[in-house]
Write a structure and sequence with these properties.
The chain is an alpha/beta fold and 135 residues long. It has helices at 18-38, 80-93, 109-121; strands at residues 61-65, 71-73, 76-78, 98-103, 126-129. The chain starts with 17 loop residues before the first helix and ends in a 6-residue tail after the last strand.
């Protein structure tokens, strides 16, 4: 049922925004109340202590496969056949060895898969694959 206040008795067709404003105000109040409850920050004043030396950072090994398929172990070129033996020797000297694998995006999957297999056969489980972020 539409009410008309005009003289010519035409129907008034305007959108009633009162219910929309009511809903928005209820949502605003709900967010204002719940946002502080979501932050679980506990503020404490930590005690002051003597400065200590930080724990020794372990150097990670980098294995790189360039665009021509050549393999580098820490910037030193190495043959595919020698890679597994070198990695086993490094693993024997450092049980918590971390390894970074870098491969050029133009290299076919085959040479990279062989390098990954050599890493797995050497017993190295801490492997990170380095990539570039997309623009």
């Amino acid at each position: 049922m539409a009410f008309s206040t005009q003289e010519d008795e035409s129907v008034l067709s305007e959108i009633n925004i009162t219910p929309l404003v009511d809903v928005m105000l209820v949502l605003l109040v709900a967010f204002v109340i719940t946002i502080p409850a979501l932050t679980n920050a506990v503020h404490v004043n930590l005690p002051k202590t003597v400065t200590t030396t930080p724990p020794e950072q372990q150097k990670s090994i980098t294995v790189t496969v360039d665009s021509t398929g050549k393999i580098y172990l820490d910037n030193n070129e190495i043959a595919q056949s020698q890679l597994e033996a070198q990695l086993q020797a490094l693993k024997a000297s450092n049980d918590n060895l971390a390894l970074h694998l870098r491969a050029d995006d133009r290299v076919p999957y085959g040479p990279v898969a062989k390098v990954m297999a050599a890493i797995e056969h050497a017993g190295i489980s801490r492997v990170s694959i380095l990539t570039e972020p997309s623009p």
